[in-house]
Amino acid sequence: MRYDLTLADWAQQRGDSQTAIADYQRVLRQEADNGDARLGLAEVYLAEGDKPSARAQVMQLKGAETESMNMQRAGGAGASWPWRYR
């Protein structure tokens, strides 16, 4: 699973949104509470301009595990994400 998450992160970094979405979704099928995958998916959706889908992923983060470094990063950045300011 860590391997799939890394592949998704790399796809996101190189701007390959479709591959990143597919890879993050594969991780979430295996582990629905994976906060790193949810955050990554939200970031991809936001970069694509799909605010409703990004918001849906963030709303699911509230129940997910928050111990990872990415989740800690999201906690500080979440208040400044664009959908917070309609």
TrEMBL record:
It comes from the Bacteria. Gene3D superfamilies: Tetratricopeptide repeat domain. Residues 67-86 are annotated as: Disordered. This is Cellulose synthase operon protein C. It comes from Klebsiella pneumoniae.
